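Please fill in the sequence for the structure shown.

STRUCTURE ENCODING:
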């Protein structure tokens, strides 16, 4: 092979690698069309300044990798295969740990962080005195830069002073364990399906009415004291729930004092 031919081969491979990187980013982002439809091969070729042959080769690679699927017919095209985050209710861990363990890049955007009077349901959940104040933290969680959940966390100020001076864009469990010696050991969670409101849809980059999984959680420390009350909303198109089932004789102890008809799920720690 001549030097010119070899150089052309290398340049072609570099070009394909560059286009593949850009297409992988497009596929994993929120900037694809309706129902995850990608632009046409012609549009992608114009967008990236390459031939349709190069685009077709890269899409072949992405299809083999399971990142896109091609459909024929009038409503056909190339569609992104939406990756889902697995939420394992048999394990208690911070969302960043879940994401990293599954190969996602974890991130978060802090919407608000303030000190407020605890609402009645938080007072009850955390066994607080009436009039107690809590750290009220609202964050949007990101997986590979895609918004997957809207989290609303309340933590007692008296027990965790100056919590808001710490970084809040990673695991709160990690901060609480390191700074305050408090370890999350178990949590009780209740889940119900809801439809996204205007504000929730805007925060998560979805349409009003899209399905969400609403999870209310109370987390307990190593002494059995509740220290976190949270209400999280997970996108139905980006998350999948895994729950372990046991026979009655082996099931975890679940608090049923509330008399609620929904399913309570108890989690054990695996780190945060």
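FILLED IN BY: designer on duty
SEQUENCE:
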């Amino acid at each position: 092979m001549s030097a010119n031919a070899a150089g052309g081969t290398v340049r072609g491979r570099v070009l394909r690698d560059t286009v593949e990187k850009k297409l992988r980013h497009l596929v994993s982002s929120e900037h694809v069309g309706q129902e995850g439809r990608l632009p046409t091969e012609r549009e992608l070729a114009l967008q990236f300044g390459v031939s349709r042959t190069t685009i077709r080769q890269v899409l072949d690679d992405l299809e083999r990798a399971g990142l896109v699927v091609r459909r024929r017919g009038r409503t056909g095209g190339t569609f992104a295969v939406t990756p889902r985050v697995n939420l394992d209710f048999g394990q208690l861990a911070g969302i960043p740990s879940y994401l990293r363990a599954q190969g996602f890049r974890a991130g978060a955007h802090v919407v608000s962080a303030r000190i407020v009077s605890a609402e009645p349901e938080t007072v009850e959940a955390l066994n607080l005195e009436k009039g107690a104040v809590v750290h009220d933290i609202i964050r949007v969680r990101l997986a590979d830069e895609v918004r997957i959940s809207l989290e609303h966390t309340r933590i007692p100020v008296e027990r965790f002073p100056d919590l808001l001076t710490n970084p809040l864009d990673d695991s709160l469990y990690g901060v609480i364990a390191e700074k305050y010696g408090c370890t999350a050991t178990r949590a009780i969670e209740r889940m119900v399906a809801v439809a996204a409101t205007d504000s929730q849809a805007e925060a998560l980059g979805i349409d009003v009415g899209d399905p969400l999984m609403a999870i209310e959680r109370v987390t307990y420390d190593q002494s059995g004291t509740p220290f976190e009350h949270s209400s999280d909303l997970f996108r139905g198109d980006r998350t999948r729930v895994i729950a372990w089932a046991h026979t009655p004789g082996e099931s975890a102890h679940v608090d049923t004092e509330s008399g609620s008809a929904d399913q309570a799920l108890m989690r054990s720690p695996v780190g945060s």
